[in-house]
Every structure is written in C-alpha cells, then in structure tokens.
Amino acid sequence: MTIQILLLLAGLALVVLGADWLVDGASSIARKTGLSEFVIGLTIVGFGTSCPELVVSLTGAFEGNADVAIGNVVGSNIFNTLLILGLTAVLVPVGITKENKTTDIPIMVGVTLLLILCGMSHTLLGLGKADMLTRIEGAVFLTVFVLYLWHCFRSNTGVVEGEEGKRRSVPVSTVLVLAGLAGLIFGGKLFVNSATGIAQMLGVSDKFIAITILAGGTSLPELATSVVAALKGKGQLALGNILGSNVFNILLILGLSSIVCPLSFASMNLVDMGILLLSALLVLLSAFSFRKNSMDRADGAILLLCYAGYLFWLFRNM
Contact 145/255 with Cβ under 8 angstroms? Predict the structure, then answer.
C-alpha cells in the first residue's frame, strides 16, 4: 500500500510538470502559427490530454470489458465538465466568446445527446432489449469526428490571451508540447495504476473504479492543463481543452472502441447518462445566462456542487 501511494504522488508530480510545459508550448505555437489558443486547446491539447482515455477504453474494448471502455469515457466527461471546468471557473472566471456560444458549446451538447440516443436507445424507447453501441454507430461517430476537426481548423477564431512570455521557435515549442504530453500521459498512467491497485485492495466494483478512479485519473491531464492555463490567464485554452476532450472522448474514443468490439451499455443507467447530459447543458446555460461573456465563480460553484452530489449518489449505490 505504501509503494502504491508513493507511485500515486510521483504520477501526480509528473502530471503537474507536464501541464506547465504543455500550456507554455501550446500558447507559443498559437502565436507563431496564427491559430487561436481556443483552437489549439480544442485540437492539439484536447487530443493530447485525451490519450489516456483512448488507451484505457481501447484496452477495455480489446479485452471485451465494456464497463471499463464506456465507464471511463462517461466518467471522464462528467469529471471534465463538473469538476475540472467548475474548479477552473472558481479559480479564475473563464471568458466565453460568441463563437463558443453559438457553435463550440452546442456541438459538445449535440455530441453528448448523440451518445445517449445511440447508446441508450432501447432503454429510452422501453423496448426491453440490451443497449449497445454498434460498429455502424462507431463508424458514424468517426465520420462526425472528421467533420468536427475540419470545422475546428476552418473556423479559426479567437484571441491570444495573457502576456507574451518567452518567444520560442515552433520546433522548440513542439518539443515542449511533446515533453508535456509525455509527462501528462506517463504520470497519469502511474496515478491510474496505483489508484486502481488501492481501490481493488478495498474491494470496489469495476464500474465504480472506471467511472471514478480511472475517469478521474485519465482526466488528470485535463485537470492540470486547464488549471495551469487559467492561472496563466489563458482561459480560452482551458475551455478549448475541456470541450475538445469531451468531444474527442465520445466521437474518437468510443467510435474506435465500438468498431473494435460493440459496446454494451448494460452497466450504465439513466442517472449516469442524465448527469452526463446535465453537465453539458449547465455549460450551455452558463454561456447564455444574464447576457454575460464568461463562466464566473458562481457557475463554477454550481458545477462543483453537482459533481459532489453525483459522487454521493455513486457511493450510496456501490
């Protein structure tokens, strides 16, 4: 147990260091290439910080363990939105642009609805059959993902935030991004493996491990990156990271995983999927409430309270 705790702390330290490098490198690339920090966060950073979820869910699919593959993505998206975005907004209010309101946030809500309608269709229609995410639906998800990437780069809008900082060449910045991602992924893996080992010693279920510990552990890169970005005055990069990660998790990760092996939603219930949808809708609501252009501390506190309520429900139903 002592060794597992030490490995957990070492993984956490690597994640924090990697996040700092990733934010600095990504911001530098944004300045040099003319891409906005939101687009960099939505694509490069969003994909990079979703790599742990990709590995965990694909491994679960190859092993025929749908509970891990689906629970990891559903839990990660809930964790990303309610805890990470909530904590980020509480620390530093996150600016929201017109493009975020009209396109980026609605896309995340739409993708979340697509997952629920495809994955839980039999339950929603009361057919009494097993809910599955099929290979055909996986192919649809991947097609939508390609269209999403095309849209991201085509609509390169936004501003570069914060101070200029150190000027670096694109190659140096790219090395910094890759080193940061390596620290995030390797540190996240250390954290997940040690946390899972501790949980198994305590005798908890696969679903609980997937939707809390694995989801939280594989979301550590998003957590560290978003908090560091917000503290450096780069709220758009933080917001892009969360929105991009959530969309990547559903379209790319579950799309690939369901093509490898059709995924059963038997362990998911309407509460899990309802919280997933609620988290996306709360971001949409905060973007349009009171005609403001930021997600403020009150919005962040509401997200955090919802996550605490969901955790309480999970513990009650272990």
Answer: yes
- Please state, in angstroms and rounded to a whole number, the distance separating the CA atoms of residues 40 and 180: 15
Position 30 pLDDT exceeds 70: no
Computed on alpha carbons and rounded to an integer, the radius of gyration of the chain in Å comes to 18
pLDDT digits (tens, 9 = 90+) for 269-294: 889 899 999 999 999 998 887 667 88
**Confidence at 318, pLDDT banded by 50, 70, 90:** low
What is the residue type of 164? E
Residue 47: both structure tokens together: 């994909």
Task: In whole angstroms, give the CA distance from residue 179 to residue 198.
Answer: 28
Residue that has been written with the tokens 């150190």 in this structure: 166
Average pLDDT of the residues in 6-27: 73
For the purposes of burial, counting CB atoms within 10 Å of the CB of 60, is it exposed (0-12), middle (13-18) or buried (19 or more)?
A: buried
Select the more confidently predicted residue: 252 or 20: 252
CB 230 within 8 A of CB 88: yes
∠ CA(205), CA(208), CA(210), 5° rounding? 105
The single-letter code of the amino acid at 71 is G
As a whole number, mean pLDDT of residues 234-246 equals 84
SS3 132: strand
Cβ neighbours of 283 (radius 10 Å) = 26
Look at residue 163 and tell me whether its pLDDT is greater than 50.
Answer: no
Which secondary-structure segment (H or E) carries 295? strand 294-295
| Closest to 264 (Cα-Cα) out of 93, 131, 145 | 131
As a whole number of angstroms, the distance between CA 101 and CA 25 comes to 27
Nearest of 119, 87, 98 to residue 242 by alpha carbon? 87
